Amino acid sequence: MSEIIILSQDDVRSCLPMSDAIKAVTDAYKAFALGQVEMPQVQHLDVAKYRGEVDIKSGAAENFGLIGTKIASGYYDNPKLGLPPGFAVIILLDLKTSMPLAIMDGSYVTAVRTGAAGAVAASVLARKDAKRVGVIGSGTQGRMQVLALNEIFPLEQVKVFNINKVNSEKYAVEMSERLGIDVQAVDTAQNAVSNVDIVITAVPSKKAMVMDEWIEDGMHINAFGADGPGKQELDPNIMKRAQAKIVVDSLKQCRVIGETQHALKQGLIQESDIYAEIGEILLGNKKGRETEEEITVFDSTGLAVQDIAAANVVYQLAKQKDMGKRVKLL
């Protein structure tokens, strides 16, 4: 008999602490670098009529014994209808038999594993004494990135900018309470990234939000908003800085849908200028940050194997706790 577990967002929340997600994402990046993962190209669907987009990410991960598919949407008028601005669903199958194992909310999995990805990258690319963070974007990912960083770094200050000042102020109140540190809402993107150690960009922008002249030596940038054709958060000139070290999650993806696409298209850099995929650094095949002065950039588009790894944490714990709804398919 084939039985599938259906897990709600509340179920997922109770089964995916950030510390476990950080470990899962680390394992996922290493598996990808070792060639233990097969991932077809991300399928992207624009639904312009309704200001929406849908991405489908799939993969087969030998090390986890799983096939996973995530269907994720971004519908930017949904809040006017009282709905979330996007949603995601993850399906897990057994790799050896293809039998379905679980269907779960993917929105929270995506939020946590993406935040974890930023922490994993910063752990090897940011200065070890990093404690000040500048955030562009006060949404879910603007929160998750900081919560994940707080697991690794002794954060003391966060500055946040959003075009909607009310949202920035709400973020500052909430996050200062959650973290017990100084969190400020600032009026400009430049103020957000001034005099910080780590810059986080997490907005669905199609134009540069952070300019080259604002970036100081020694900064680390986690760029997470560009995950589709045309999306952009960073001035492409940042990528060509002599001391900049560019690291990607997947070169194949980032050159097409990541932040790197713009610098490549404009001829500011060549693919050979991209230093490494993050998994190579985590495996010790390449070095992470080497000097206090170098500027490091992590271009993240999100990998199916991250979803599989994080969803597997949820699935295994849900089985142990006998959570979710069981449905017999055969």
What can be said about this structure in brief?
The chain is of the alpha/beta class and 330 residues long. 32% of the residues lie in helices and 28% in strands. It has two domains: 3-109 and 305-328, 2-Layer Sandwich (ornithine cyclodeaminase, domain 1), CATH 3.30.1780; 118-302, Rossmann fold (3-Layer(aba) Sandwich).
Structural class assignment: alpha/beta
**CATH superfamily placement of the largest domain:** NAD(P)-binding Rossmann-like Domain
- Strand fraction: 25-35%
CATH third-level topology of the largest domain: Rossmann fold
Secondary-structure blueprint:
Layout lengths: L2 E5 L1 H6 L3 H16 L3 E2 L4 E5 L4 E10 L4 E10 L12 E7 L5 E6 L1 H19 L6 E5 L3 H10 L7 E5 L3 H15 L2 E4 L3 H5 L4 E4 L4 E5 L9 E4 L8 E3 L9 E5 L2 H7 L2 H6 L8 E4 H5 L12 E5 L4 H18 L3 E4 L2
Parallel strand pairs: 1-7, 8-9, 8-11, 9-10, 11-13, 12-14, 13-17, 15-16, 15-17
Antiparallel strand pairs: 1-18, 2-4, 3-4, 4-5, 5-6, 6-7
Helix pairs in contact: 2-3, 2-10, 3-4, 3-10
Describe what you observe in this structure.
The structure is a single chain. This protein has 330 residues and is α/β, with parallel strands linked by helices. It folds into 2 domains: 131 residues, ornithine cyclodeaminase, domain 1 (2-Layer Sandwich); 185 residues, Rossmann fold. The protein is 32% helix and 28% strand. The chain is built from 10 helices and 18 strands. Strands 1, 2, 3, 4, 5, 6, 7 and 18 form an 8-stranded mixed sheet that branches. The protein has an 8-stranded parallel sheet with strand order 10-9-8-11-13-17-15-16. The chain has a two-stranded parallel sheet with strand order 12-14. Strand 4 and strand 5 form a beta hairpin. It is globular.
